[in-house]
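hi! just following up on the protien thing from before. the input was this:
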Amino acid sequence: MESETVGILIARARQRKGLTQVELARVLGVAASTVANWERGVSYPLRKPALIEDALGITIPPPPRAPEPQEIAS
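and the predicted 3d structure came back as:
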């Protein structure tokens, strides 16, 4: 799953819970800009997936795998 799709998942779950980005950020102990970046697909929630899952009642898939160097050279 791409980070943008994960962002949409987070945004929709947050909205269903009636939380603003600021409120979710406070619950998770991150900056509101971090939540915004997740939701826009700018970054992937690598450090807080379990907290996000607990707070929003969702499952976040593992991050996309980067290609191995030999795959790039092929």
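The mean pLDDT is 88.
Helices lie at 3-16, 21-28, 32-40, 49-56, 69-73.
cheers
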